[in-house]
Design goal:
The complex is a heterotrimer of chains A (289), B (281) and C (270).
Chain A: E1 3-14, E2 22-33, E3 37-41, H1 48-55, E4 63-68, E5 71-72, H2 80-86, E6 87-90, H3 103-114, H4 118-131, H5 148-160, E7 166-170, H6 178-195, E8 198-202, H7 206-212, E9 215-220, E10 223-229, H8 230-234, H9 237-242, H10 249-259, H11 271-284
Parallel strand pairs in A: 3-8, 3-9, 6-7, 7-8
Antiparallel strand pairs in A: 1-2, 1-4, 4-5, 9-10
Chain B: E1 4-11, E2 26-33, E3 38-42, H1 49-55, E4 64-69, E5 72-73, H2 80-86, E6 87-90, H3 103-113, H4 118-131, H5 147-159, E7 165-169, H6 177-194, E8 197-202, H7 205-208, E9 213-218, E10 221-226, H8 228-232, H9 235-240, H10 247-257, H11 269-280
Parallel strand pairs in B: 3-8, 3-9, 6-7, 7-8
Antiparallel strand pairs in B: 1-2, 1-4, 4-5, 9-10
Helix pairs in contact in B: 3-4, 3-5, 4-5, 5-6, 10-11
Chain C: H1 16-19, H2 22-36, H3 42-58, H4 63-86, E1 92-96, E2 99-102, H5 103-129, H6 132-142, H7 153-183, H8 193-224, H9 243-265
Antiparallel strand pairs in C: 1-2
The chains are: A alpha/beta (289), B alpha/beta (281), C mainly alpha (270).
Chain lengths: 289, 281, 270
C-alpha cells in the first residue's frame, strides 16, 4: 500500500525564543496509507490539535517535514493554499464558520476558492450536501435558520465539497446528542467507503473511535506514544489509563473477564462482538441453546 | 407539596393564542423535585428538557399549567428574585456565563446584585470556590482556564447566591472527558456532602446513571421516569426512541433475550463484570 | 498569535501598587500624562523617569511582562525617534544628503523615546495592577456626580467591564474562524485592497453572529444571577482611600512641583 501522508520528525514550538516558549508537538514520525481511517486520541493539550493543523499547512512546523504523496508540503510556501484543498480540515464546532446568505453558497465557498465554476461547482456542492445527509431543499435557506445538527452538516459539507484526498475531522460529533452523533458518524463511514479517500478522525469518544478506526494514533504530552491497529491499541488498557485515557466500557468488561480466566480474545470493541463471543461461550457450556 | 412542582406545564416559543397549532416545546409536563434529591433529565435536543430547566427559576413562564418553587408560583412577578435566589441555573457554555475578568470577582457578581454586605460576600465567595475546588484559582483570568474549570467557576457563581437547588442545563456538553468528570464529581459532592438539591439536564447516559432519579423526555412529554436501574433496564423503549443505553446494560439485555438468566440489569462496568462472572461460572 | 499580547492585562499580585485605591491610580495616571509631556529639560525628564521606574519596581510584576508590552510599540518608538533625530533645528553636527543631525534633534529623539517608553510603562503598570473590575468600579465612582444629569454611569461601567472580559475570548474566536476559513482556501495575504477587504467578510460575519449569540446568553446568565441594574448593588471589594494613597499623592505632588520648578528655572533642552 502506498503512503499518502508521511510525517518525519515533525515538531512545533510555540513562541520560540521568548520566555513563553512551549513545545506542543515533539518528534512525530509516521506514515498513513491511502484509504485508511485513522483515529487520533489524546488529552486536551496533548498536542493533537497542533499536529492536525500542521497536516494542511495552517501551522508551519518548526522541525521536521510533512510529506503529501512524497513531497514536502512546504516545498513552495507560496502554493500552500493548494495543499489546503488536498488536505481538508473540519475544525471543532465548524458551524461557527458559516457566513454566506444561503447554505448552497456557503458550501460552494471552498470549491470556488479552488477555481471551480458552473456544472463542476454545482456537482461538488450537491454531492457534498448529500454525503452529509443535508436535504436538498435546505440548500436555498440561510445557514443561520438551520437547526444545530443541520448547521454542523452544512459546515462539514463545505469541506467535503473541495473533494480532498485526506479529510481531517476534529471532534465532529462534539456537543451533539446521541442520535445526532450516531447519524453523523455513520455518514462519515459512508463517505469514507464511497470515496475511498483517507480520513483522520480526532475524538474524545473511545466508543466512536473503536467503531470506525482502522488504526489509532495516541498522543500524550506532545509525543506520539502509540500508532497501532485499533484492537491492538485498546488491548493496552492499562497503558492508556496511565496517560489518562480510557478504553470503551465494553472492552474493559471483556478484558477483565479474560483476566479472571475466561476464554475471551483481546480487544473486543463493540457490544455486537462481545455478544457473539459470550453467546458462543455459553452455548459451548450448554447454558443456552 | 414538593420543593419544586410542575403541573401540566405547556410552553411554546411561539404565541399559541394567535397560532393554536404552533409546536409546543413542552407539552403537558408534570413532575416534582424533592429537597436533597439528585434528578437527571435526559432526552434528545429539542425534547423540551432545556425549556423545562428555564421554567424552574422563572426564566420562562408556562403558557398554561403552573410551576411552584417552595410554595411560590413562578408567574408571580413579585417573587421572581426570591425564586432565583432559591433555584440557581447553570448554562451550557461556560464562557458566556462568566461576566468578570477575575474568577473571584465573577463569583461575587450574584451576591453583589443581591446587595449583600462586602464582608459577607467575601465569605460566600471563598466558601463557594472551595466547594468546587477552584479556590487556588481565585485570582486567575477566566479565559485562561480549561472548560471544566470554567464550568466549576460558573457553579461557584451560583453557589455564592446560596440557593437551595441548582439546575444545570447540559453543563458538560461542551467539555472534554476530564472536564466532564470534574463537573460530575463536583455535583455529586455538593449533593452528598452539602445536601444540595441538583437537577441535571444532560444527554449523557453515564451521567444520568449517577442520579437518584431519572426523567426521560421525548417530544415535549415525559417518556418514563424512575431510578436509574428502572429506567435503563427498559433498553427496548430507550432504543426505540434512539436514546443511548450504557454498554453494560445493552450487553446484559441482549444476553437476557438470548435466554441467559440475568438478575437486575447492571449499569456500570464493575457490576456487569460480576454479573457475567456469575453467569459464566 | 493575538492572544500573546500582554498589554492591557491584569497581573494578580499583592504589591503596594496593587493595593492603591483604583480611583487614586486613575487620577494620578491622568496627572502623570500631563506632566510627562511638560518635561522640557533633562532634570525634569530624569525626575519623571525615576518616578516611573519606582512605580514599575513597586508593582511586583516581573519585568518580562513590561518588556512584552514595550515590544508591541518598539517600531513606533523607532520611527518617531528617527523622525525627530533628523528633523531637529539648529547647527548640524553630521550631514549626509538630506539627512542632518543636530544637537536639538538628538535631544528631541531622547525625549520622545523616553516619554513614550515611560507612558507605556506607566499605563502597563496601571493595567497590570488594577483588575478591570476595579478599573470600571473606579470610573463608575469618579463619574458618579454625572448621575444627577441622568447620565447612565452604572450601565456604561458595566458595558466597559463586559467588553474587557470578552476581548480575549473574541480574539481567540477570531483566530479560530480565520484558521477555519483558511482551511477552505481563504486568502488574506494577496490581492489588491478590495480583494483583501472582501476576504474579511467570511471572518466578520461569523464573528458578529457569534457575538450576538454570546450577548444573548450573557444576558440570560446575568439574569439567572439576579442582576437588576445598578440600584441596590454592593461590591465585594469596597474601595476607600488610605494612608498609602495619600503618600503616593504626596510623591506625585513633589514630582509635579519639581517639574514646574525645573521648567521655570532651567533652560529648555528642546
Amino acid at each position: 500500500m502506498s503512503a499518502i501522508l508521511e510525517l518525519k520528525g515533525l515538531g512545533y514550538t510555540y513562541g520560540k525564543g521568548t520566555p513563553f516558549e512551549k513545545r506542543a508537538v515533539d518528534g512525530v514520525s509516521l506514515s498513513i496509507n491511502k484509504g485508511e481511517l485513522v483515529g487520533i486520541i489524546g488529552h486536551t493539550g496533548s498536542g493533537k490539535s497542533t499536529l492536525v493543523q500542521m497536516l494542511n499547512g495552517l501551522i508551519r512546523p518548526t522541525d521536521g517535514q510533512v510529506l503529501l504523496e512524497g513531497r514536502d508540503i512546504w516545498e513552495k510556501p507560496k502554493e500552500i493554499r493548494k495543499i489546503r484543498f488536498r488536505v481538508g480540515m473540519v475544525f471543532q464546532y465548524p458551524e461557527y464558520q458559516l457566513f454566506e446568505e444561503t447554505v448552497y453558497k456557503d458550501i460552494a465557498f471552498g470549491p470556488t476558492n479552488m477555481g471551480k465554476t458552473g456544472d463542476e461547482l454545482d456537482f461538488a456542492v450537491r454531492s457534498a450536501a448529500s454525503f452529509t445527509g443535508l436535504k436538498p431543499e435546505l440548500l436555498e435557506k440561510s445557514p443561520f435558520d438551520l437547526s444545530g445538527g443541520e448547521k454542523r452538516r452544512a459546515a462539514i459539507a463545505g469541506v467535503i465539497a473541495m473533494d480532498p484526498d485526506v479529510l481531517v475531522l476534529d471532534e465532529p460529533t462534539a456537543g451533539l446528542d446521541p442520535m445526532g452523533r450516531e447519524l453523523l458518524l455513520s455518514q462519515i463511514i459512508q463517505y469514507h467507503k464511497q470515496r475511498k479517500n483517507t480520513v483522520l478522525l480526532v475524538s474524545h469518544s473511545m466508543e466512536d473511535i473503536a467503531r470506525v478506526a482502522d488504526r489509532i494514533m495516541v498522543m500524550s504530552k506532545s509525543r506520539l506514544v502509540m500508532f497501532e491497529k485499533t484492537k491492538e491499541v485498546f488491548s493496552h488498557g492499562a497503558e492508556l489509563e496511565q496517560i489518562g485515557l480510557r478504553v470503551p466500557e465494553i472492552t474493559k468488561i471483556m478484558q477483565e473477564l479474560k483476566n479472571r480466566g475466561f476464554d475471551i480474545p483481546d480487544g473486543i470493541l463493540t457490544v455486537d462482538e462481545a455478544f457473539s463471543v459470550l453467546s458462543r461461550l455459553l452455548k459451548k457450556e450448554g447454558k443456552i441453546w | 407539596m414538593s420543593f419544586i412542582t410542575l403541573k401540566d406545564v405547556v410552553y411554546s416559543y411561539e404565541d399559541i393564542e394567535t397560532e393554536p397549532n404552533a409546536p409546543r416545546a413542552v407539552d403537558g409536563v408534570s413532575m416534582s423535585v424533592e429537597k436533597g434529591e439528585f434528578v437527571a433529565v435526559i432526552g434528545h435536543n429539542g425534547c423540551g428538557k432545556s425549556t423545562i430547566a428555564k421554567h424552574l427559576n422563572a426564566m420562562l413562564l408556562p403558557d398554561s399549567g403552573k410551576v411552584y418553587v417552595d410554595f411560590d408560583d413562578t408567574s408571580d412577578e413579585d417573587k421572581t428574585f426570591d425564586i432565583r435566589k432559591k433555584v440557581g441555573l447553570v448554562l451550557q457554555n461556560p464562557d458566556n456565563q462568566l461576566v468578570a475578568s477575575i474568577v473571584e470577582e465573577d463569583v461575587a457578581f450574584g451576591p453583589e446584585n443581591l446587595g449583600v454586605e462586602p464582608e459577607e460576600i467575601r465569605k460566600r465567595v471563598d466558601s463557594a470556590l472551595k466547594a468546587v475546588g477552584m479556590y487556588e484559582y481565585r485570582e486567575h483570568a477566566p479565559f485562561k482556564l480549561s472548560g471544566g474549570q470554567k464550568q466549576r467557576v460558573a457553579i461557584a457563581g451560583i453557589l455564592a447566591i446560596r440557593p437551595e437547588c441548582i439546575v444545570l442545563d447540559e453543563p458538560t456538553a461542551m467539555l472534554d472527558p476530564n472536564g466532564r468528570s470534574e463537573v460530575m464529581s463536583t455535583l455529586l459532592k455538593l449533593n452528598r456532602e452539602r445536601d444540595m438539591t441538583v437537577v441535571l439536564i444532560t444527554h449523557y447516559m453515564d451521567e444520568a446513571v449517577l442520579a437518584d432519579r431519572v426523567i426521560v423526555m421525548d417530544g415535549g412529554k415525559i417518556l418514563t421516569e424512575g431510578t436509574p436501574g428502572e429506567v435503563f433496564s427498559q433498553v427496548e423503549l430507550l432504543k426505540k426512541h434512539r436514546l443511548d443505553v450504557p454498554q453494560s446494560a445493552e450487553l446484559m439485555y441482549r444476553l437476557k433475550g438470548a435466554g441467559v438468566e440475568v438478575g437486575s440489569i447492571p449499569l456500570n462496568a464493575a457490576d456487569c463484570i460480576n454479573a457475567l462472572e456469575e453467569v459464566l461460572r | 498569535m493575538v492572544r500573546d499580547v500582554a498589554f492591557g492585562q491584569y497581573f494578580p499580585a499583592k504589591s503596594l501598587i496593587h493595593r492603591l485605591d483604583p480611583r487614586a491610580k486613575l487620577v494620578m495616571f491622568a496627572a502623570y500624562i500631563v506632566i510627562i509631556f511638560c518635561t522640557f529639560n533633562f532634570v525634569s525628564l530624569a525626575v519623571t523617569t525615576a518616578f516611573t521606574v519606582l512605580f514599575v519596581a513597586l508593582s511586583g510584576v516581573p519585568f518580562k511582562f513590561y518588556f512584552k508590552s514595550l515590544k508591541v510599540i518598539i517600531l513606533i518608538v523607532l520611527i518617531t525617534s528617527l523622525l525627530n533625530l533628523f528633523y531637529g533645528s539648529g547647527e548640524p553636527i553630521w550631514q549626509w544628503w538630506i539627512f542632518k543631525i543636530t544637537q536639538n534633534g538628538i535631544n528631541r529623539a531622547i525625549f520622545v523615546t523616553l516619554r513614550i517608553v515611560c507612558l507605556i510603562l506607566a499605563s502597563s503598570c496601571l493595567t497590570f495592577s488594577t483588575s478591570p473590575t476595579e478599573m470600571t468600579d473606579a470610573i463608575e465612582r469618579l463619574m458618579k456626580p454625572l448621575k444627577v444629569l441622568h447620565f447612565p454611569v452604572h450601565e456604561i461601567a458595566m458595558m466597559m467591564s463586559l467588553a474587557l472580559r470578552f476581548i480575549p475570548t473574541l480574539l481567540e474566536e477570531t483566530d479560530k474562524i480565520m484558521q477555519a476559513q483558511k482551511a477552505r482556501g481563504s486568502d488574506f495575504e494577496s490581492g489588491g485592497i478590495t480583494k483583501r477587504v472582501r476576504a474579511l467578510i467570511p471572518i466578520l460575519v461569523p464573528l458578529f453572529v457569534s457575538a450576538f449569540r454570546r450577548a444573548y446568553e450573557i444576558a440570560t446568565a446575568m439574569e439567572c444571577r439576579c442582576y437588576n441594574g445598578g440600584d441596590g448593588r454592593t461590591r465585594m471589594k469596597s474601595i476607600h482611600l488610605s494612608a498609602r494613597d495619600f503618600i503616593s499623592f504626596a510623591v506625585l505632588g513633589l514630582v509635579i512641583t519639581g517639574v514646574i520648578l525645573c521648567n521655570i528655572f532651567l533652560e529648555p533642552a528642546i
